[in-house]
Amino acid sequence: MLECQQLTKRFGERLALDALDLRVGGGEIFCLLGANGAGKTTTINLMLGFHTPTSGTVRVGGVDPAADPHAARALLAYIPEQVNLYPLLTGLENLEYFVQISNGRRYSRDDLMGYFTQAGLSSADAGRRLGEYSKGMRQKVGIAVALAKQAKALLLDEPLSGLDPKAANEFCSLLIALKERGTAILLATHDLMRARDIGARVGIMRAGRMLAQRDTTELTHNELEQVYLDLMRA
Ligand SMILES: Nc1ncnc2c1ncn2[C@@H]1O[C@H](COP(=O)(O)OP(=O)(O)OP(=O)(O)O)[C@@H](O)[C@H]1O
């Protein structure tokens, strides 16, 4: 569903991504790990068609996002670290608006409420203004958008940072539920423990390069941490 082959991105002299190979299939959670500046956000931005590759290819469901960003984004949902929604609209109005601009469809209030509650938000919160929502609740509106537009793939950039342990746990359970519905999930995170728990595979990046990809069933938490630290030191 998500595929990069020898994907390279330069910003002037800076090599942000260096011949990245990556595949994420439907029903799989792949976690991208790496220090600040490793190239995780650049990878996601290339999938969204926000940047064009310097060389190599990126495909979303077979679509080249640089050539046809609208077609690629129609297949995707994206949850950045800070979900930017309209603070003066209610949670449900935000859901309605963002789904409509992404696929042009209008949903009944009952359908919208169904997606809202499937994303772990209560019907009592639907009428509250977004500006009153916590970070975890705003992230869940992002999940509701993914559910409503039936996104084939979900891209998440540091969604767990700043969430308390209970909210992070709930959020990870939602990701697992989406995976089980067949969604391909690419999650950039610094949280090695949760990456190990929810990812089928992890990829460890440094300075634009994918240094290792591991099946999480092969590694304990401590082993993953050791592999990560060894690669960061090398
Ligand atoms: N628009 C841009 N113009 C110039 N350089 C950029 C741009 N976007 C990213 N970079 C550079 O590309 C490299 C990779 O950045 P990127 O944001 O992809 O890293 P990251 O792994 O997401 O880091 P973090 O964990 O801090 O979010 C960095 O050196 C960054 O400064």
Automatic annotation (TrEMBL):
Enumerate the UniProt keywords alphabetically. Answer: ATP-binding, Nucleotide-binding, Transport
Q: Name one Pfam family in it.
A: ABC_tran
Q: Which domain of life is it from?
A: Bacteria
Does the keyword Transcription regulation feature in the UniProt annotation? no
Which residues are the signal sequence here? Answer: none
Under the GO molecular function aspect, what terms does this record hold? ATP binding
Task: Describe the location of the ABC transporter domain by residue ranges.
Answer: 2-232
Is Magnesium among this UniProt entry's keywords? no
**Name under which the protein is recorded:** ABC transporter ATP-binding protein
